[in-house]
Automatic annotation (TrEMBL):
Positions annotated to bind [4Fe-4S] cluster: 36, 40, 43
Native species: Thalassomonas haliotis
SUPFAM superfamilies xrefs: Radical SAM enzymes
Pathway: Purine metabolism; 7-cyano-7-deazaguanine biosynthesis
Keywords of this entry: 4Fe-4S, Iron, Iron-sulfur, Lyase, Magnesium, Metal-binding, Queuosine biosynthesis, S-adenosyl-L-methionine
Name of the protein in question: 7-carboxy-7-deazaguanine synthase
Cofactor(s) essential for the protein: Mg(2+); [4Fe-4S] cluster; S-adenosyl-L-methionine
Binding site for substrate: 17-19, 32, 97
Length: 227
């Protein structure tokens, strides 16, 4: 009997510095998955939203991108590991992002990466069940009242190792406080991330972090001008 191979639709695979949350400054390999129905208005990766079969390309074309695009490749777990080795990447931390990576079962990929000596982190909106390895670090960036109409899951909030919330207005802060109370989250580290690095959003985030003993995430990679 033929064993089914687990494959993932990937928009980008690259090495850089993690610029957000607890792992800020950590050399990391980003695996950006294609597909997201959540519909955040301020999303900076809208090119990953749609999965158009006509835009599937070979892995070499995906890896050779020089600018953002909605072209994607489908790679098996084994091909992902082979690609990381072939690219000569030195980082030992893997960030699974998107898009919305938790639309698919990430456990086979996480387990294979960990067996190969990598640590894993997933960045998710909290609107899908999180299927990862036990050791995977889960960053939930809860997307409240977005166009897609998806609810934040209690299981996702409970699994989070950190909560990273984009803010621009007091309403965003109020939504987060309500969410934390609803899901009875008291001990998980909370990061506020100013949307688009705007001065007013940054001032609000700093003030709110101090008032609530939360942490600030400022998207260091964008200030540095790197991917």
């Amino acid at each position: 009997m033929k064993v089914k191979t687990t494959c993932y639709k990937i928009n980008e695979l690259f090495e850089t510095i993690q610029g957000e949350g607890s792992f800020t400054g950590q050399p990391s390999i980003f695996i950006r998955l294609q597909g997201c129905p959540v519909g955040c208005s301020w999303c900076d990766t809208k090119h990953t939203w749609e999965i158009d079969p006509q835009l599937q390309v070979a892995s070499d074309a995906m890896l050779g991108k020089t600018q953002e695009s909605d072209y994607w490749s489908e790679l098996s777990v084994e091909q992902i590991l082979e690609t990381i080795t072939a690219q000569g990447y030195q980082a030992k931390h893997i960030v699974l992002t998107g898009g919305e990576p938790c639309m698919v079962d990430l456990k086979p990929l996480c387990e294979a990466l960990e067996q190969a000596g990598f640590s894993c982190q997933v960045e998710t909106s909290g609107t899908f069940e999180i299927r990862v390895s036990d050791n995977c670090w889960v960053t939930v960036s809860p997307k409240v009242n977005m166009r897609g109409g998806y609810e934040i899951l209690t299981s996702a909030m409970s699994r989070a190792n950190e909560i990273k919330h984009p803010v621009a207005t007091e309403q965003h802060v109020d939504e987060l406080k309500a969410l934390l109370a609803q899901h009875q989250i008291t001990a998980t580290p909370v990061y506020l991330q100013p949307i688009s690095q705007k001065p007013r959003a940054t001032e609000l985030a700093i003030k709110t972090c101090i008032e609530n003993n939360w942490r600030l995430s400022v998207q260091v990679h964008k200030y540095l001008g790197i991917e």
